[in-house]
Fold this sequence. Notes:
single chain; alpha/beta; Rossmann fold; 2 domains; ten-stranded mixed β-sheet; 10 helices; 17 strands; 23% strand; elongated; binds beta-D-galactofuranose; binds zinc ion
Amino acid sequence: MKKKVLSALLSVAMVATLLVGCGSSTEEAAAPAATEEAASTEEAAPAETEAAAEEEAAPAADGELITVGFAQVGHESDWRAACTQNYQDIFSAENGYELSFVDADNDNAAQIEAVRGFIQQELDYIIIAPIETAGWDTVLQEAQDAGIPVLIVDRSVDADPSLYEAHIGCDMVAEGEMAANWLAEYLNGEEAKILVIEGTVGASATLGRTEGFNNIAADHSEWEILDSQSGDFTQSGGQEVMESYIKSYSDFNVVVCQNDNEAYGAMDAMDAAGITYGVDGDVTIISFDATHDGLQYTLDGKISCNVECNPLQAVFADQVIKTLESGGTPDAETVVTDEAFVAPGITSALATTMTQEVLDGRAY
Ligand code: GZL
Ligand code: ZN
């Protein structure tokens, strides 16, 4: 399976130019103000084409729009909103698509029913951002039996990879390891009593970030993970879990929130309890997503480390579909790599120190 590792280095630009690894095709993405450069591919990448090919996505040869069903997780977080907007921007009529979008509202059964609906409508393609990793084999087999290619995006599924054409997403285990490696650098051997607010139960983002963080924590006997409960990637979930933690634990100095919205809820709970956090507080907060507001809190010194998970992935799904449309074989796996950001005053070999310029240069 060819693997394409793309680094998503976002900087200010009015035209999105994507240099994509293998095959070095370049594509102007409709995603606003993002310049991403391929970092590397696993195989030696051919010399990148310099000039951005003005390859405009266009309706299929017969002028027909390509019909695509997108079964989205829900609307649980700011990250999700950015992901949805990105798919709606890219899968537009001017790009040759007719998009049927279903927000599954974090409900697994509803998401599987949405996919069955797309199959009944005999759409050309189905895109799934799976809420949970489990439970997908049957409906993916139904889609394959109906001759409808499926793309799995954002999160991943525990299913036979021959049941879908491609997976596009970030490496959640790497994100978890990035967070823990930064904490080790920051604490430099000091003790840590850690509380974790996990994401949605059974989601690959949750499983991966937890696994990655624990991989590194295992090397630090001076750390203790006191508890790890799901806040369901929502602000209210983060607040509820933090409120219960405050009742149960009086001696903690690190809170790991598996997305920004949970961090906002945790901060509300700590404010209400008079617990200080941030670079000048008693508690160090680590978050994931690096959304605009999450990075504002990082710039303000309230979140100490924020690990990015880049939601601007729709252009890669567009590329997979256009490759299939032209009879080609798309990369089975596209991994969009991430970076980390830390609060001003923190220097790190692993992360970018936040400035207003960095924040202004972000695309979401
Ligand atoms: C990550 C994505 C997660 C985000 C959350 O790829 O699946 O789901 O981290 C979102 O904000 O709810
Ligand atoms: Zn250690």
